[in-house]
Known about the structure:
Elements: E1 12-16, H1 23-29, E2 35-40, H2 44-54, E3 58-65, H3 71-83, E4 88-93, H4 95-108, E5 112-116, E6 127-132, E7 135-140, E8 148-152, H5 161-178, H6 186-208, H7 213-232, H8 237-249, H9 253-268, H10 273-282, H11 288-298, H12 314-324, H13 335-347
The structure holds fe (ii) ion.
Amino acid sequence: MDPFVYRSQAVRVVFGDGTLDRLGEEVDLLSIRRALVLTTAGHEAQGRALADRLKDRFAGVFPGAVMHTPLAVTEQALRFASEVKADGVIALGGGSTIGLGKAIGVRTGLPQIAIPTTYAGSEMTPILGETADGVKTTRSDPAIAPKTVIYDVALTLSLPPRLVAVSGLNAMAHAVEALYARDRNPVISLMAEEAIRAMATALPAVVSGPSDREARANALYGAWLCGLCLGSVGVALHHKLCHVLGGAFNLPHAETHAIVLPHALRYNAGAVPDAINRMTRIFAGRDPADSLYDLGRQMQIPASLREIGMPQDGIARAVDLTFANPYWNPRPLERGAIEALIAHAWAGEPPGN
Ligand SMILES: [Fe+2]
């Protein structure tokens, strides 16, 4: 057995269908008496509705969360939090809202409850990315993570099947890369394997039967585990490539990750036998990269980077950018093979060799 370091996370996770009913108890457990609710502008009404559940523990709603956690918004929210004398924060929404909760939590020490409505996974990580004057900074600190996460399947029933497919595969990428991360460990590998298994079954079931609550529950369960992987170990080539592609060509985040994943896994396959063995078991003996590619086709998401707006002459530029700022990966980066990988993903072909 390889040596490893494992750090457990002190987060309370409440999972189920209808768990929002327990919000009051969870708020009391953290001794919050005046809870500030955070949402995006589009979800303000959903945030206001929490007042009924919080009763006199409701301090107000700040419906200003936006993408990339700009410092100006955080400062506005901090002023509002002190005006309403908040002693705790409830973030109801996706990555943007949960990011704002973390930004407030790390500056004030106020306890945070996250109620995720997407599969992004931010609620399970001690990572905060913020922007000030267009510059993004990212930091990781155990103090950033929410104290309690409430997963309520009921809140995910309105996620459209197409979004379930792409954001589910985007989440799965965290579990796939966790299996071969440089700082991988046996506990997180168990969770990663279970995450991939849950997602591989649940995502196509939700896409073909959007009102199947059991499939929705399994997808959210998988998303939780994927978030745990993201919050515990590092990532590799897949994330590096998606970061380069998204930044250079302004491609949609989840779609880019969903398209690139089978290709990145194929590139690494020969260097990561344990990850491939675990995933081959999940896919009933079939090749995992081919299986992930087929999963995308089965759910009818875009197969190619071309379809989501990447120009063909961008392939060479993406290769240059990948090598300009190299990143750890289990298989060293080889120029010709990386170019072939990106070309396959651009064309939407099955993963090559
Ligand atoms: Fe990611």
